[in-house]
Structures are given as structure tokens and as C-alpha cells.
Amino acid sequence: MSPEDAITSGHGLSYKKAGVDIDTGAALVRAIKPLAESTSRAGATGTLGGFGGLFDLRAAGYRDPILVAGTDGVGTKLMLAIASGRHQEVGVDLVAMCVNDVIVQGARPLFFLDYYATGRLELETGRSILAGIARGCREAGCALIGGETAEMPGLYAVGDYDLAGFCVGAAERDDLLTGAGIEPGDLVLGLASTGLHSNGFSLVRRIVADQGLDIDGPAPFAPETSLGEALLVPTRIYVESCLAALAAGGVKAFAHITGGGLIENLPRMLPDEVAIELEPLTWPIPEVFSWLLQAGRLSVPETLRTFNCGIGMALVTAPERAEALSRLLVEAGESVHIIGRIVERPAGGPGLLPDPKEILWPG
């Protein structure tokens, strides 16, 4: 057959033969639409499938808004999701990592967009991921107004995918949290995590491999469940409880405990003249962290600067507001613990005390 005959007869190459199936992509968009509609909120306009997502700040009730934007991914936790075939959880993770950063500034997350890239688009996997993203958006009260699905054979192996998320929130100009009012004597309240959340998984995967564990076998720290299920518990979304605390008054700063663990993230909310004196590790620490410390022969400082160690979000408040805020947060579903106190920081001194080498792991 001549090249001309191949062209006229349709027997030549096609985008689908090259590895990209436009029909499957269109089917996924159709499957996503009801999921996106389930996240609708005041200010979200238009429908999924346009070239850009629209949001009306005036319709959302803002007078003098400052926009707060955040972007993040899920990291190598995705490799465990792929290996175990559990995809919805990482969709929740994607939203959580972004919206929890936005709420730290005192802003309410308004809308979210996702980027989903894969070697070959598989409809059920994509639908599961997007169902998790929609679930996370509903929990955070933000609208899923758009996104991008990219099928890239040759760049990703078949079955592999990557996720990124983009969240925009807003706060009235006078309500932004800056930490400027933090002073010695204030208390640091910690909100419990649901486990590993979405950080440190390159180290987690290394420990799992070194131990020769099967992702579908029982978790050594939770034998009633599989290792994959135990490690893939989604990142907790703290938006609604933190918004309730902000509305009640008395919150001076938030810190989202992500990459860098407690050691790196707690000082990020502080002005230069103060530090946090961390309490002994007496709050309930999920068993997964003790298992990782022992199985990986990790030092306590390495554990504290890699993982959240049971605290996913922290806030600073004056002592006279601590009890009322704790009660409100518990009513909103959080487990709350006093994890530290604000003290004066010597010039050039660290933002977290004591020295991590002096911190003892419980038990």
C-alpha cells in the first residue's frame, strides 16, 4: 500500500496507535462532571470542560479579599497506591495538602484544580482518583472547577501516574494570620493526625522494602489491616475545624505539619523573637511512627524532622483562650493536645527547644 493509499484508507498511524486515547479522555471528563458538580459552592460559576475555571469573589461574600494560593502533590505515596490498587485515598491527599496550607494563612479555600498525568489513561483508575479529589473538596468546602488530564506514553510507564493540585482561597485583608501577635506565655495546641499523611514516603518505602514486607499482607503495627491500607490512610483535612476556631477568635497562627515534620514546620509560624518549647512526646503517637523508628533504626531527630509524629496541624493561642478553643475543636471532631509553649528566643537561637537530640521517644 502506498503512503497516499494509507492516508486515504485510514491504515496509517493515529494518535490512539501512538498511545493516546482521546475517546477515553472524553469519557473520563463525562464521568468527572457529576463529581465536580457535587463540590459546587457560592461563587463557583460555569461548568467543567471549558478552557478556564471561573469564580466570583463577590458572590462568595468578600468585601476586600486577599487571595491565598497553594500547590502541592502527593509524592511517592502514589507508588503504594499504584501497587495496592487503592487510588481514591490519594485523591483526598492531594486536596488536603493544598487546602491545609491555605487555611494556615487564615484563608478559606474557594476552588481547586487538579493535574493528572499518566502513561495510559485507565477509566476506572481515573474515576477513582477524581472521586477522591471531589470527596476532599467537599470536606474542605471548596469547588472543583477544572483540571487537566494528560496521557503521556513514553514519559510514564503503563499504570504509573502523577498528581498535582492547585488551590486558591481568600481572606478579608484584616483577617490574614501573620503570627505577629505571638508572645511568650502563649500555648501551642496540636491537632492529631490520621497517620503518615503524605510525607516521608520515600523513607517509608525503603523501610518496607528492607523488611521484605508485602503491601497486601498484614501491617506489622496494625495486623488487623493490610499494610497498604494502613499506610494509605488519607491526610486529614482541617479546614472546617480551623475556620470554626478562627471565627471564635484567639488563634494567632497555624502550622501545617508536612515535609520537615515537627522540627521544621512548627517554627515557620513564629516571629523571630520567640521560640517554641516543645512538651515531652506525651500525646498519643500512632503506632506506625514507632514501628518506622524501630524497623528503620531511625534516630529520634530524624523521625521528628521527617514525619508529623501524630500532630497534623498546630496553632498558637493565649492561655486564657486555650480551653475554649480546645473545646470547640473537639466538638468539630479534632483530638487536641497542648504540645508546647512560647518562650523568648535568644538572638540567633533556634525556633524550637529543646535540642532535638535531647528529645526522648516515649516507651
What's the shape? globular
- What is the ordering of alpha helices and beta strands? HHEEEHHEHEEEHEEHHEHEHHEHEE
What is the fold-level CATH name, i.e. the topology of the largest domain?
Phosphoribosyl-aminoimidazole Synthetase, Chain A, domain 2
CATH class of the largest domain: Alpha Beta
Q: Please, what is the average pLDDT?
A: 93
Query: What proportion strand?
Result: 15-25%
Number of structural domains: 2
Radius of gyration: 23 Å
The CATH fourth-level homologous superfamily of the largest domain: PurM-like C-terminal domain
The termini sit apart by 76 Å
- The residue fraction in helices comes out at 25-40%
Weakly predicted, low-confidence segments = none
Q: How many H/I helices?
A: 12
| Structure summary, number of beta strands | 14
Query: Within the largest sheet, what's the order of strands?
Result: 10-12-7-13-11-14
Summarize the main sheet: 6 strands, mixed
What would CATH call the architecture of the largest domain?
Alpha-Beta Complex
Structural class: alpha+beta
